[in-house]
Hints:
Layout: E1 17-19, E2 22-24, E3 29-33, H1 40-53, E4 57-59, H2 77-90, E5 94-97, H3 104-110, E6 113-116, H4 124-131, E7 137-140, H5 147-159, E8 165-169, H6 187-194, E9 199-201, H7 203-207, H8 210-223, E10 227-231, H9 249-268, H10 274-283
Parallel strand pairs: 3-4, 3-10, 4-5, 5-6, 6-7, 7-8, 8-9
Antiparallel strand pairs: 1-2
Helix pairs in contact: 1-2, 1-9, 4-5, 8-9
Amino acid sequence: MTNLKLVSLEKHDRTIIQVGAARFGAGLVLIAGPCSVESEEQMIETAQAVKEAGADMLRGGAFKPRTSPYAFQGLGLAGLKILAKARDITGLPFATEVLDTRDVAWVAEFADMIQIGARNMQNFSLLKEVGKLQKPVLLKRGMYSTIEEWLNCAEYIMNEGNPNIVLCERGIRSFETYTRNTLDISAVPAVKELSHLPVITDPTHGTGKVSLIEPMSLASIAAGADGLIIEVHRNPNEALSDKEQALTPIQFAMFVRKVRALEKFRIENQFMGSASIGSETKSS
């Protein structure tokens, strides 16, 4: 991948991206919150719950790209203001998705981290626009995209002057229908072989099943992921979007204890998944 002049690990130290107190690339960052901001009460109650459980950042969609035009599309500006209030109350920075180049500048006034969703990964005009900012960007892998295509999209952002990129593996489409997508955990060590940028996973969208979020999160940590982004709703049965894949606050609190324990083990044993095994093999 010789065309990756800025994203490539060659001649670059591993990058740490700071978002508030969260540091991607320097320990496990947990991002949690609902798929969509539905109301002030819903968002703040969920934000307080994930903060208490040990989350480092909030997530919540103010603009929602939906398969059906009749599905809930988000609250827009009102949603951003609610997210900002949740940040003020909890002290947690938040990530939210931007869909349109016309919205980038003013969404950036509210958000601590701008998310480029899977459907927009190759929206090159949008990539260039967020590249003009110094705001951290969470770049999700497209559902039909190769690792090379994904990294080239990060290159677009960096080429405009913004080096603050966190990559997110969120599942790719395959012939399998039991899960919503196929979470490509091998992408984590693969990206670490190729790029200096931090990489996290999204086991929520990667599986679409509450029962699979925890095991795929633990597998992601073992593979060397720098973070996880997890959907949490105060009452998933009432969620206006993605109710099948949201943890309750109680489930999330139990989840955090397990993933933090594995992360502690990983650090204490300097275990970084197959990437470290490969480097040891080369050095020997």
